[in-house]
């Protein structure tokens, strides 16, 4: 029983065969998926993600403005996310949010300001956050320390590909760390060393599909069924059975996102 804790399956990449993709996930033992809605908040992308989740029982939804789209964030976007987090069926997290200084699709000062605003808003709403960070480690930690205080810092660094230092700081701040197919890539020795070290009650697994398909599917479109390969890799690294990795990551997912509590109150 695997949970894909971060996937993008509401987009056009899956329009032609979404049902088959979900069936393959089910057949592979993937019992739940957290689908992350991203894009220009004013273009209906969050409503689309929630609507898809509503039609599939074991799909949960996260919504938030990705650092790529930070330039579209405004008061209206913030109220929309707040409202949908309250009223949307099975909306369990605010994200993905953070900083991406690799692509710089939005100006860095705008990314930092919008990251701060979304952290504070998520904290006010009491929902955990999903952090995306690339080539912005110091700034990410600084902002989490200054603008995500006062409450338990609940969240996950998704698709982790940072330094050991970043992993330790994130764990120190109370975050979980989620590993994707990158872990299976040939050159990912540093990341595998980190995955060996992360406490077993603080890790998650994900695909981040349609991107980053794990070995042996590398280069193809990724899909939730392939999260099994991430679990297999962690099992080998830690000397565990794959079933234990699945079970531990499921427990960690439920502790962090509390999907049943949130789902049953609405
Ligand atoms: Zn991301
Ligand atoms: Zn993502």
Summarize the structure.
The chain is an alpha/beta fold. It has helices spanning 18-27, 45-54, 75-87, 108-125, 137-147, 164-172, 189-197, 227-238, 242-257, 259-264, and strands at residues 2-7, 30-37, 59-63, 91-100, 129-134, 155-157, 176-179, 203-205. The chain contains ten helices and eight strands.
Give a verbal description of the structure:
Helix content is 43%, strand content 17%. The chain is of the alpha/beta class and 266 residues long. It has an eight-stranded parallel β-sheet. Strand 7, helix 7 (189-197) and strand 8 (203-205) form a beta-alpha-beta unit. Helix 3 packs parallel to helix 4 (108-125), helix 4 (108-125) packs parallel to helix 5 and helix 8 crosses helix 9. The protein starts with a strand and ends with a helix. It binds zinc ion (2 copies).
